[in-house]
Specification:
about 0% strand, 2 helices, elongated, mainly alpha
Length: about 60
């Protein structure tokens, strides 16, 4: 479920960023596929980074 929610929030936030930055730059056409591709790449990076961190407390020796 955490992977589904990661993809969902990545899609929402990157698509919103794509729309807002396009509106600020005065781009005439909103490109939906670019936001979708970038959000998928972003979600994979977030999942890989989250899985690379150790779980639980780290003991000091």
């Amino acid at each position: 479920m955490k992977y589904v929610m990661t993809f969902f929030w990545s899609f929402c936030l990157v698509t919103m960023l794509n729309y807002v930055s396009g509106a600020i730059a005065n781009v005439p056409v909103f490109d939906f596929m670019t936001g979708t591709i970038v959000s998928a790449i972003f979600a994979v990076i977030v999942i890989v980074l989250a899985e690379s961190f150790p779980e639980g407390e780290i003991a000091d020796h």
